[in-house]
Amino acid sequence: MELIRTNSQRLSALVEYLRLLYQGPVAKEIFENYRQVLHSAGAHEVNEALDMVLREAADMDSWKVPVARFIRSVSRGLDAESPPEYPAGGLFAELEKENSSIEAELNALQARLLQSRGKSAEQGSHSGEERRHSLESVEEIGRRLGDFSLLKTHYQRLQNELFPLFEKSSSNHGCVSLMWSLQDDVLALQAGLVRKPVVDSGGAASMNYDLARTGDEGVRTRFWKALGAFYMTAGMLLYRERRILYPVAFRAIPEHMFGKARNAARSTESYNFSTLTGSLGTKELEAIFKTLPVDISFIGSDDRVKFYSDPPHRIFPRAPAVVGRLVQNCHPPKSVAVVEEILRSFKNGERDSAEFWLQSKGAFIHIQYFALRDAEGAYLGTMEVSQDASHIRSLDGEKRLL
């Protein structure tokens, strides 16, 4: 691991400027006082400044705009740095390959958007030809967004593989929570642009592809606005990954950590699990966990993930790097407060269980949390059990063995 030393005065100036941006746009004369340090700041200085501010942030959403302005202000220094040479076949090389594919798709969306605007200008803003072309553009973009599954896969890989390793290797990982929140924003925008209309209690429908296909000009305008927000936010995350996250994490994470994560699931150690009700060998126990129709995770009394099952039907993806990670860092920022409240109530004995349910891609997902205690009632940890209960809910009548 390479130790990066940051000049304290430069760091203080960066933090000070970022906090000024939180109060609102900065006047040009004030910007000039910080110009030199802003234009020469590198990835590690920028990351450390972000960490000092974001690790104390109570509301991550309120920092999204100030941080975006801050990164634009330091982009000259970030762009001047050459990215590290990532080992072929390694995690960073694979993530960068995914980034290139994501960038190509975003560029294709941008080209289609610009082409549509150009033709609209040529044909007149309210002509029948313009409306026909606009609908064709909406249909094509809707299809592309529906097929753009790599984005979610890439974000899940960051959340389950890179983020845990980065958190274990560096104390300056405050940017991770903000990136996760922005990833949720991008995926929500994408889903909103392609899913079926959702009408709320007031009769207002969400902005999406199906609605944009109608002849309503205002609806299509909102579609293009949402598409622009999707494009800008996804592109912004791409830039931050390449210019800040990857260079900093690559230097912070020791090589042996990657090997440890890769080999965690390959242990050949054999043991027997024995109780009064029977005993199981390693292979039998692993087969049981892989076959159970539920996902299981166990969080120890120190709030760190100690175990998760890995069935082929797992609802919420996990990777070996998550073991040892604080459970608070395994959830999107917007749900951390709920997680902490559940753990608190389990630890002090107020509750022994909690449950939630949600709809996802046509499936009914049931999530339960259970407090585990020893014979004396001491708290051992929390077990999370999740399952797709769609089939169970559809059952009716009886089907007996005999």
UniProtKB/TrEMBL annotation:
Q: Where is the composition biased (Basic and acidic residues)?
A: 127-136
Taxonomic source organism? bioreactor metagenome
Task: Identify the taxonomic lineage of the organism of origin.
Answer: unclassified sequences, metagenomes, ecological metagenomes
Under the heading InterPro entries, the entry gives: PAS-like_dom_sf
Q: Where is this region: Disordered?
A: 117-136
Q: What is this protein called?
A: Hemerythrin-like domain-containing protein
Q: Which residues form a coiled coil?
A: none
